[in-house]
Structures are given as structure tokens and as C-alpha cells.
Amino acid sequence: MSVALRASLLVCSVLVLFFVMRRIRKAGLEISDSIFWLALSLVLIVIAVFPQIAYWASDLLGFDAPVNFVFFCGIIVLLVRTFSQDQKICQLKKKLIALVQDEALRD
Amino acid sequence: MKVLAIIPAYNEEESISPTVEELLAARTGCDYLVVNDGSSDATERICRERGYRFVSHPTNLGLTGGFQTGVKYALAHGYDAVAQFDADGQHVPGFLPRLIEEMEATGADIVIGSRFVTEKKPHSARMIGSRLISAIIRLTTGQRINDPTSGLRLYDRPMMEEFARRFDFGPEPDSLAYLMRRGARVSEVQVSMRERQAGESYLSAAKSISYMARICTSVLLAQWFR
């Protein structure tokens, strides 16, 4: 991993960290959701500071380049996140339908 | 048999009044309920001014949620069956008694007011979708439904309970196929329908492709995991 990539990872993670903190302070994010973003930015910082971890893991799993491993992990994390958000939206829809119908049918 | 005609209405200010008046004039023996699905136009005001029986959603839920509200109302008020009836003037209320007779005579769980029992299905572009849905229903249930997309249907009490209980379970062909696989008996009665008179359809031309994709996926795949 190049120095430039490590630097941008570091900058991005610090920015994420900063934004998450600000959102939590303004109550724009639930604490349980913020855990995900905090953990993500911490992991990015750790990888930017100790790229040996990425070298070791990509070697172990047979990636051509450590950077591919980092990107791959990012994609997987985002896919899982999207899926869980779909589930959450579905739950919210169920609640909304129940509320609207209750309101409509109240005599 | 005590039957409730459920009329889901979303922005139907032009056609809701003629539809209800025609239904009343036809003396079908059915009660009716307009489910105003969060309309932004005068639909609710018209219903209130004319003294129609209606309930109003505070926001728009779509056909599935609107029909379900009607079913929940029917269950709470002790109806034996519900009919799905379009607010846009496509359906002729005079056919409702025939659907009810068919249910009483055959004991069917679902009676469809079908355009193609004795009439032949035309070979038009619009009917390609209908044929495709018929074909996959036949494939998955082994039974023939001539007019799966007809919106004029009568459901008995066990079916009402299914519609009230389930989530994402609209009065659409995929639900029909699911219920048929679970042993529901379906019967079709020949009816005629009119073209839409006014207003905005739940199925505009732009939406029809995504409608087909959704129904086909649902019939072929998703229903098995329900």
C-alpha cells in the first residue's frame, strides 16, 4: 500500500470520526448506529497506521495486492450494511402500515 | 351472505362519486366502504359531503395497505366476504350478485370477475402480461386462471383472515397463486369491464413493467419462502 493511500485512509477515517461525533452531539444518529461508524473509522485508522495487517491478511487469503484486500473488505461491509438497512426499512414500513390503519379504523 | 365491497381510492375525486352512486343504484345487496388512501385531492371531502361510508388513511400506503384496511374493517364488523372494487369506474356493480351466487353455489374461496371465461382473450400487447401471468400460475399451481389481473374479486372469510394477517400481501395475482397452492379454491365468472373513466391508476403504463417483474418474481420465487 502506497503512502498516499495510507494518508488518504487516515484522513478519511478522521473525517468520518469527526462527522459521527458531531451527528451524535446533535442527536442526528442513534448511538447504536454510531457504533458501526466509529468502529469502521477506527479499523481504517489502524490499517493506515499498521499496513502490515493488510499485507498479512492478503497474503493469507491469496489477494494479489493488499489494497485489493482493503477494498474487498469495504465492499463486503457496505453490502452487509445495505442489507441490514433494508431489513430495518421493512420493519419501519410494517409499523407505519399498522399505525395508519389503526388511525383510519378508529371509530 | 353479508358482503362488503372495498373501494380503495387514491386521488379519485372525479370518479369516486359516480362509482359509489352506481353501486348504490345497482341494489347489489352489498355494503361498501371507501378506503381513502391519503388522497391529496378532494376525494375525502366528497365522501364526507355526500355521506358515504369511508375511512381515511392519514398518508398514502398503496393498494395493498388500502385493501387490508378494508379487510380489517370487514372482519371487525362481521362480514362473510369482501369484494375488491375499483374506484375508477372500470367495474360494473351489476356483476357483484353473480360473483356472490357463484361463491354460495360452489363454495369457492375466491371468485374472480373474469373478462375471459367465455370471451376469448385478445392478442393485444396489453394482454401479453396477462398471458404470462396465467402461464406461470399454471406452472406453479397446475390450475388455469383466465384473467389473473382482473381487479374484481370476491374473497371469503378464511381468505380475508390471510389478507388481514400478512405483510406485503396485496390483492394481486401473486397472492392468488400463493393461496391456491395452499388449497384455496378459485372460480371465475364472466363479466365485462369498462375502460378507466378518470383519475390516476395504481398501474400506470410506466409502472407496468416493474409490476410484471414483481409479480413474476413473487409467483416464481418468493412465495416458496413465505
TrEMBL record, chain A:
The UniProt keyword set, sorted, is: Membrane, Transmembrane, Transmembrane helix
Membrane-crossing segments per the record: 6-24, 36-55, 67-84
Query: Pfam families from the entry?
Result: DUF2304
Is Membrane among this UniProt entry's keywords?
yes
Species of the source? Thermophilibacter provencensis
Can you say what this protein is called? DUF2304 domain-containing protein
The source's superkingdom equals Bacteria
TrEMBL record, chain B:
Output the InterPro entries linked to this UniProt entry: Glyco_trans_2-like, Glycosyltransferase_2, Nucleotide-diphossugar_trans
Q: Which residues form the Glycosyltransferase 2-like domain?
A: 6-162
Q: Per its UniProt entry, which superkingdom is the organism in?
A: Bacteria
Which SUPFAM superfamilies is this protein grouped with? Nucleotide-diphospho-sugar transferases
Question: What is stated as this protein's family in its record?
Answer: Belongs to the glycosyltransferase 2 family.
* Protein name, per record: Glycosyltransferase family 2 protein
